[in-house]
Amino acid sequence: MPTRPATRLSASLPNPPEVPSVLSSPNEDRAVRITTRREREALVLSVSGDLDIDSVTPLGLALSSAADDGSGPVVVDLSGVGFADSTTVNVLLQGHTALGDRLRLAAPSPFMQRLIGMIGLDSALPVLPSVDDAINAVLPS
């Protein structure tokens, strides 16, 4: 029985669309934003949006930069996070490895509270109910 020659599927497909050099969420409300500020001697990273494998890189870079800076506590304000996946948890754990006791998580959104509780992240990282509580836990008044 003769075999049919293989067909190249790509030959019948149109050219792939151009991929933008910067990926952004089509829904502006869910785009990831990280703002930084100093409160007393603590660096506060306020995170908002949906964090997943495609959008968590800025958080990893911010934590890495804070670790390289080497000064003072780092508080990650999670109050604006609507969604997070396992890559986010991994980035936070890597941040804890790099920053040690300098890292605190604060004000987790309801989604983050469920995620943290479900996987037991609060047994590895200090999680406090507010940014002020997180700062007060590491800095004297």
UniProtKB/TrEMBL annotation:
<dbReference type="GO" id="GO:0043856">
    <property type="term" value="F:anti-sigma factor antagonist activity"/>
</dbReference>
<protein>
    <recommendedName>
        <fullName>Anti-sigma factor antagonist</fullName>
    </recommendedName>
</protein>
<dbReference type="InterPro" id="IPR058548">
    <property type="entry name" value="MlaB-like_STAS"/>
</dbReference>
<dbReference type="Pfam" id="PF13466">
    <property type="entry name" value="STAS_2"/>
</dbReference>
<feature type="domain" description="STAS">
    <location>
        <begin position="32"/>
        <end position="138"/>
    </location>
</feature>
<dbReference type="InterPro" id="IPR002645">
    <property type="entry name" value="STAS_dom"/>
</dbReference>
<comment type="similarity">
    <text>Belongs to the anti-sigma-factor antagonist family.</text>
</comment>
<dbReference type="InterPro" id="IPR036513">
    <property type="entry name" value="STAS_dom_sf"/>
</dbReference>
<feature type="region of interest" description="Disordered">
    <location>
        <begin position="1"/>
        <end position="26"/>
    </location>
</feature>
<dbReference type="InterPro" id="IPR003658">
    <property type="entry name" value="Anti-sigma_ant"/>
</dbReference>
